[in-house]
């Protein structure tokens, strides 16, 4: 048995459990791809087209950066995809339940109630802004998930000079409407519950502020809304 002194000597200086808890899901905080010319970085976020865009980056010679707050690049622009938090949560919680519990309709009513109470269950349902911690808003190139403009990737594709870039050209992406049409009954009922929607919007309010600031999208009326609320943002 190890002594108490051993554990005191091993204790960390900074608490960082996110990567350990979520190591099997999504991307760790700070992870990004950097373009070959080092002028752009793409920050993937679960349920925001991350799989397709990450595959494209790998195919076009983009390097992987473990933590953009450690491997800093003050000259580059950061490409981020911002999605409506309500739509992203619906997609994310369905994926989480399929992964962890087989199917969303197979979980008990009590388990579903816990999902609604907790909201943030894993990287697929965590706030998008968490993944952008440390970034300067003025250095971000935002893409709206609901009406995406991929011109930046198309320009980079045109300048790519790798063999894989020929095999994996950027053809653009569209929102998966089939996902919306084939939603489980529980998700459909959730979307009709105005009280739950307002609560979700309040929980993910910082993601709405990001969309407002970067995409000029109107803010919804949060529960207990306070326009001076985003005190975590730095000037």
Blueprint (SSEs and pairs):
Layout: H1 4-10, H2 18-21, E1 32-34, E2 40-42, H3 50-59, E3 63-65, E4 77-82, H4 85-101, H5 109-118, E5 140-144, H6 151-159, H7 163-167, H8 177-181, H9 185-191, H10 194-203, H11 205-215
Parallel strand pairs: 2-4, 4-5
Antiparallel strand pairs: 1-2, 1-3
Assembly type? single chain
- Biggest beta-sheet profile: 5 strands, mixed
Query: What's the helical proportion of residues?
Result: 40-55%
Give the terminus-to-terminus CA distance. 50 Å
Number of helices: 11
- Structural class by helix and strand composition: alpha/beta
Q: Cα-atom Rg, whole angstroms? A: 20 Å
Tell how many strands the DSSP assignment holds: 5
> What best-fitting shape do the alpha-carbon axes yield?
globular
Structurally, the number of domains stands at: 1
Poorly predicted runs are 1-8, 10-18, 162-168, 230-235
User: Could you tell me the strand content as a percent range?
Assistant: 5-15%
The H-and-E topology, N to C, reads as: HHEEHEEHHEHHHHHH
Main β-sheet, spatial strand arrangement:
3-1-2-4-5
């Amino acid at each position: 048995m190890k002594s108490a002194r051993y554990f005191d000597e091993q204790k960390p200086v900074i608490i960082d459990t996110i990567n350990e808890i979520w190591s099997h899901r999504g991307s760790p905080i700070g992870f990004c791809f950097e373009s070959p010319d080092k002028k752009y970085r793409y920050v993937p976020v679960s349920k925001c087209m991350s799989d397709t865009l990450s595959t494209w980056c790998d195919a076009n010679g983009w390097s992987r950066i473990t933590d953009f707050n450690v491997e800093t690049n003050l000259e580059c622009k950061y490409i981020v995809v911002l999605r409506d938090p309500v739509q992203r949560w619906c997609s994310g919680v369905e994926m989480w339940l399929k992964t962890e519990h087989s199917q969303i309709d197979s979980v008990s009513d009590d388990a579903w109630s816990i999902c609604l109470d907790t909201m943030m269950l894993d990287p697929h349902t965590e706030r998008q802004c968490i993944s952008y911690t440390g970034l300067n808003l003025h250095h971000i190139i935002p893409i709206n998930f609901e009406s995406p403009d991929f011109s930046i990737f198309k320009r980079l594709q045109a300048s790519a000079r790798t063999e894989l870039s020929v095999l994996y050209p950027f053809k653009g992406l569209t929102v998966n409407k089939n996902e919306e049409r084939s939603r489980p009954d529980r998700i459909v009922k959730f979307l009709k519950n105005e009280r739950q929607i307002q609560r979700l919007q309040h929980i993910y309010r910082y993601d709405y502020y990001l969309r407002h600031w970067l995409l000029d999208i109107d803010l919804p009326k949060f529960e207990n809304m306070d326009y001076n609320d985003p005190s975590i943002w730095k000037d």
